[in-house]
Each structure stands twice: as structure tokens, then as C-alpha cells.
Write a structure and sequence with these properties.
By secondary structure, this protein is mainly α. It is 68% helix and 2% strand. It contains seven helices and two strands, in the order H-E-H-H-H-H-E-H-H. The chain has a two-stranded parallel ribbon.
Length: 167
């Protein structure tokens, strides 16, 4: 690896580290708004997605309905939360991070966050749908990485095991 590549990798590592700190601070710091002391977990896949989608349909998001804004943030925020992670992780460690490793690590990061929310944060709801959406988000990020780096495949070919992006 040349000196220029090392600098790029360190820069990507720094960006990835800062990004992960932001993600953890956004998800593991208690919410200071309204607390709900009812059920603080959801183990039924797609239940909260269905509820948020219905909330978006029946309330007017454009008029600033509070419930619909929460639904919008939960639906689309979870889709995009780990997208940068799926892009930055293989970019930071070229040749060592595969598609499977990216997806597994995104799944376990999200699972860790949800378990911490369940046990330690009354102001947050641990939700299986967050795990699903965040993992899909990382997959989208990796696909973007693949598309962008595939254009320059010959340049990256020697940094990948067997010249493969997906393993």
C-alpha cells in the first residue's frame, strides 16, 4: 500500500469513528422529550413499520402533525442510519471487509444498540424493526460502495482478495 493510500485509509477510519460516535450518541443517550412508560420494546417484526406507515397515511405530515413527524423520522431515519457505515467500512479496510462482514457487523451494532435501549433507556423503545431497517441500510451503503468502486475496479483489484467484492 502506498503512502497516499494509507492517508486515505486513515482519513476514512477517522470519518468512520466520528460517524459511529454520532450514531451511538443519537441512539444511546436518553431522549429528553415525552416519556412513554408503557411497553418499551417490540419483538414483532414489521409491527411498528405498519403502525408508522398508517400514521403517515392518516395524519397530515405536511401540516406538521407531531405523530406523523415521529413516524417519518422513525421510518426514514432507520433506513438511512447505517447507510454511511455500509459505505465507509469497506472503504476504510479495503480487501479485508466483505459484504458478509459488513452486514454481520451492522446487524450486531444495531442489536447492541437495541439491547442497550431495552435494558437502560426508559425513554427509548427497543424495536426489532430498527434492527431490520438498519441492517438493510448498511446493505444499501455497501451496494453504493460496490457501484462506485466497481467503476475503478482495476485500481482496487489488487486490494481485494481474489479481486472479489462480495464473499
Amino acid at each position: 500500500m502506498t503512502g497516499k493510500n494509507k492517508k486515505v485509509n486513515w482519513l476514512c477510519f477517522l470519518i468512520l469513528s466520528i460517524y459511529l460516535l454520532i450514531v451511538f450518541s443519537m441512539t444511546l443517550v436518553p431522549y429528553v422529550g415525552e416519556y412513554t412508560y408503557e411497553q418499551h420494546y417490540n419483538l414483532v417484526p414489521f409491527l411498528s413499520i405498519k403502525n408508522y406507515w398508517q400514521s403517515l397515511q392518516y395524519t397530515e405530515l405536511i401540516n406538521g402533525g407531531k405523530l406523523s413527524m415521529i413516524a417519518f423520522i422513525n421510518l426514514f431515519g432507520n433506513i438511512g442510519l447505517l447507510l454511511p457505515y455500509g459505505f465507509l467500512l469497506p472503504l476504510t479496510f479495503p480487501g479485508r471487509i466483505t459484504f458478509k462482514r459488513t452486514v454481520k457487523s451492522a446487524f450486531f451494532i444495531t442489536l447492541f444498540i437495541e439491547i442497550m435501549q431495552f435494558f437502560f433507556l426508559v425513554s427509548r423503545v427497543a424495536d426489532i424493526d430498527d434492527v431490520i431497517f438498519n441492517t438493510i441500510s448498511a446493505v444499501i451503503g455497501y451496494i453504493l460502495y460496490y457501484i462506485i468502486c466497481h467503476k475503478h475496479y482495476k485500481k482496487y483489484k489488487y486490494n481485494k482478495p481474489n479481486g472479489k467484492y462480495f464473499n
